[in-house]
Amino acid sequence: MANTPYSSDNRNFSDSAHLVARKTIYPRLFSTTENNLAYEKQEDILSNRGGALDADLSIDRVVKVAVNGFRIPFTFTFQERFRKPQYANNQDITLTEWNTQSNLPSELYKISANFFLYGYFDSNLSVFSDAIVVNVPSMMLAITNGQLSFTRNVNRRSNQPFLCITFNALHKAHLVDYHMRVDDLIGSIPF
User: Fold this and answer.
1) How confident is the model over 146-152, as a mean pLDDT?
2) Which helix (H) or strand (E) holds 74?
3) 107 in any annotated domain
4) 129 near 186, Cβ under 8 Å?
5) Sheet strands side by side (includes 151-154)
6) Would you say the C-alpha torsion 31, 34, 37, 39 has a positive or negative sign?
7) 115: domain range?
8) Strands 104-105 and 92-96
9) Which of 14, 36, 157, 161 could form a disulfide with 32 if both were Cys (CB 3.0 to 4.6 A apart)?
């Protein structure tokens, strides 16, 4: 099966953004402290489960949240996508629809994560200018029911078709579980 070409630069960018999200986004989303959150290692997601979580279910992260009064942590799954700050004016999320290299369904048809964390990350400053967490099952239902507006586009580099869904459309459809803007972070930016 032909996959989208691997890029170590993209992986390093995403890993850096994820580490900052652990301090700034995940604790706020779950209304808890960093100490109550645990993350399954990325290597475990990519290898120990035969790559099924990432390749077959579009799950990038498994997050365990300790909750007072419960015996074991709750488990949540995430698809993460981080983009560079020059794209922040787009204010949209993208979902790849078809892998033209393999001629197989892509993220749109496979995503089984609970949430989609999508953010604009400045790696030079180690800060998000904007990030949004979307409830995936509700988003897929809204697409199915025709209650969510989107546009279709094609990536010029990979020739892969994808959907664009604006932050405004996601808010209007009540699909956003958390939205963080840079103004929300004043005083908590890690240096």
Assistant:
1) 96
2) strand 74-83
3) yes
4) no
5) 92-96, 161-166, 151-154
6) positive
7) 8-185
8) unpaired
9) 36
